[in-house]
Design a protein that fits this description.
By secondary structure, this protein is mostly beta strands. The protein has no helices and 11 strands. The strands form 2 sheets. Strands 2, 4, 5, 6, 9, 10 and 11 form a 7-stranded mixed beta sheet that branches. A 4-stranded antiparallel beta sheet has the order 1-3-8-7, with no helix packed on it.
Length: 124
């Protein structure tokens, strides 16, 4: 099994910044994709930023491009999401996820493991 622990959420004013981190651990760990999804009240979970682990190719949701930066530290089995210029519409619970199989990696349905989520609240 894989365990995922997220950190870095909080409450900020619009225009502020937060840095999320997710560390993965487990007896065995193989991954095809890893990244971040978010879910706001009354909405479905949506893709934010994901990475093809082998190739390093990243995908960002259009609305966060230019504001969010997705990165990883292979040695630490950790991914980060640097969120700048935050907007109220970014408010959501952010979930870290790992997929052990291939597919269209920005689709939440391919992910096998999920963290508990970390709340991000952006006030106006």
């Amino acid at each position: 099994q894989v365990q995922l622990v997220e950190s870095g959420g909080g409450t900020v004013q619009a225009g502020g910044s937060l840095r999320l981190a997710c560390t993965a651990s487990g007896r065995t760990f193989s991954r095809t994709a890893m990244g971040w999804f978010r879910q706001a009240p009354g909405k479905e979970r949506e893709f934010v930023a994901v990475i093809n682990w082998s190739s390093g190719t990243t995908y960002l949701k259009d609305s966060v491009k230019g504001r969010f930066t997705f990165s990883r530290d292979n040695a630490k089995n950790t991914v980060y999401l640097q969120m700048n210029s935050l907007r109220p519409e970014d408010t959501a619970v952010y979930y870290c996820a790992v997929s052990r199989r291939g597919g269209t990696i920005y689709l939440s349905t391919i992910y096998d493991y999920w963290g508990q989520g970390t709340q991000v609240t952006v006030s106006s």
